[in-house]
What we know:
Layout (H helix, E strand, L loop, with lengths): L2 H41 L11 H29 L10 H6 L6 H25 L7 H23 L4 H34 L1
Helix pairs in contact: 1-2, 1-6, 2-6, 4-5, 4-6, 5-6
Amino acid sequence: MTNNALDQNATTIKNLNARFKELCFCGITLSLLSGGVLIYNIIGPGEISEFDVDWGEIMRTPLNFLWFGVYVCGARLCYRAWQQIPADIARTTPGKAAGFLFIPLFNLYWIFVAFWGLAKDMNRTLAEQHGNQHQVNESMGLAVCILPIFNLLLIVFMSVLHVPSIVTESVATVIGVLNSIVWILFFKSMKESTIALLN
């Protein structure tokens, strides 16, 4: 490898580590705040007068921004990882993989291509270039795709059945925290495999 290629790989590794730290920060913060809202919902605010503040309601806006932050960080890592897969193996381009995640409703399908497909293609690339070292957990990639869809369907189903909102929000929060943990573990594995491809 030339010095230019080595410098470029070092920059890519530095960027991957920075994106992963952003994902971890958003995911951990999201999990902590979601846990706080869950505890608040379970304990309850007690009697609320017209002058009291409903902290559970106030926390929903930052939580939504954090969910979006986790999603954006995941898309950025996805883009970087797809860049390392040779065109003859990759089922999509890095731009499509990350960009199509932001198309409403279509992203419910595309998440499987972008993340689960990424895990499969990354493992194929690793097997061809490095044997079976640093394999990405494909099951974790599938879980990254299924958990948000399951959470969405569960919320819709519970709403149709008129389940009290406290129960719906609590279940959605627990699944959301689990989803954050799975995202962090999946992208840790993906980051390590991408770095293995660069070395």
